Amino acid sequence: MSDPASDLPFFYGSISRAEAEECLKLAGMADGLFLLRQCLRSLGGYVLSLVWNLQFHHYSVEKQLNGTYCIAGGKPHCGPAELCEYYSKDPDGLVSTLRKPCLRPPETAVRAGVFESLRDNMLREYVRQTWHLEGEAMEQAIINQAPQLEKLIATTAHEKMPWYHGKIDRQEGERRLYSGAQPDGKFLVRDREESGTFALSMMYGKTTYHYQILHDKSGKYSMPEGTKFDTIWQLVEYLKMKPDGLVTILREPCVNPNYSAAATPSVPGVRRSLQSNGYTPPPKAPEGLGVDRRTLPMDTSVYESPYSDPEALKEKKLFLKRTQLMIDEVELGSGNFGCVKKGVYRMRKKQIDVAIKVLKSENENKAVKDEMMKEAEIMHQLDNPYIVRMIGLCEAENLMLVMEMAAFGPLNKFLSSKKDQISVENVVELMHQVSLGMLYLEENNFVHRDLAARNVLLVNQHYAKISDFGLSKALGADGNYYRARAAGKWPLKWYAPECINFHKFSSKSDVWSFGITMWEAFSFGGKPYKVRPADLGGALRGVPHCGTSTSGTAWGA
Ligand code: AMP
């Protein structure tokens, strides 16, 4: 998985503060000149380096647990591009707005950090050993799980570094440092036997020094009173630049005699590693046409946001121009608000297929309009490959919600019409993707409240996206559930008891709905709790408000 900032022309990757300042000096030191670099301290974080009044200002951009990015005390943003876009319009606490990007010279590649060169192999090794997967199944798992796995393996990446010696005592550490040349700054990291913590041993003036690496409650590593880091290898990289309390900076690693350089390929990015493993991604298949088994989600045009291109992002607006939207007469589906039509949205560099939810013109019902606006508001905040993205709203002959196209339609219909052609593995693959989309929602404090197979749309046979955010809610930072004031027109069969009894909705109740959706998927589009009328009064009897519709949807009011 490549860095989300890798396409930004002002992103330099893993460069130090001094190098960033050098680049800004070379670019002229104009007020508002800025660049973005990888944070060497926190996993997945960045530093924004900005010039004002001939001075440098460096702002850490932290990656939050929920996957958003923010400058301390500032607003969260869904990606580094969105964050920079925001600060280019509003300084919001910075010394200035971001006025002029300090562009990376065309011949200079984004500098990969130490971890990037190890990441692919570690991901692969982990998936092979833990899940016993090989070949294409392994590639698919890596793609689906990359963000979660990356975090997991980043914290153990030091074990693959030449300077890491595992569990050896202080004497053995000294013996290894004294063997061979003894330059100042020669170092190794070892496990401290008794406490399960780490120690740094280094050479200076032919003498060895030992430092305990502190590990605080929040999981950060540091030297006593020094800067804190998410991982041991980030701490080591930092100590190569700054002594931070040591007798000198770290220089030459004392190489572990058991270290194997073969474990450190330098091919960053899953996509490239797929190729290096003999896998060649197929050309982008037009969604909706016969799709080859080997087409992976990432090979489709809807894996990444249409706004991942910084040029397109600059023009991103909530309200789209009607002139850029072409509406086809083909109806993809309908609901009580109106119908969903097929269309094309023209962007600056490309045209994309879209699905357009059109509010019926006679539907002046304010509640329906409000519901559509609320759905748009929620969708506007989401950006994940396993969630149908909203492109924007368009107010013209009707109010229209423009979304990414998922041409294969709802999962329940697809599975029931293709029962004999779809393998159970295929269903697992799709539901795995749904779980990743739901994980993203949970991490970002959203509750979906209407997860069901009818609301999982397929881009193709092997790529699912969650849709229909009409009932969804963003939870406040302080709450982990939403309580509805009154019951509405609800999909009761997908609801957990606390939703029905106490109107309480949380990620936990979304998990319940996920369970029902799993049941629908593995019964190839079956209707949950489908009982013969004679059996009614069993499982459902006694559930308050439960509409016992025989249609299978069981919307209750
Ligand atoms: P909804 O009211 O959101 O459930 O949409 C009604 C129907 O329109 C769905 O069941 C789909 O058949 C179709 N539809 C909605 N959104 C999309 C989309 N993004 N791509 C393709 N079809 C869609």
From TrEMBL:
Region (Disordered) location: 265-293
Enzyme Commission number: 2.7.10.2
Reactions it catalyzes: L-tyrosyl-[protein] + ATP = O-phospho-L-tyrosyl-[protein] + ADP + H(+)
Example of a GO MF term: non-membrane spanning protein tyrosine kinase activity
SMART domains attached to this UniProt entry: SH2, TyrKc
Keywords of the record: ATP-binding, Cell membrane, Cytoplasm, Immunity, Kinase, Lipoprotein, Membrane, Myristate, Nucleotide-binding, Repeat, SH2 domain, Transferase, Tyrosine-protein kinase
CDD domains for the chain: SH2_N-SH2_Zap70_Syk_like (cd09938)
Protein name (Swiss-Prot/TrEMBL): Tyrosine-protein kinase
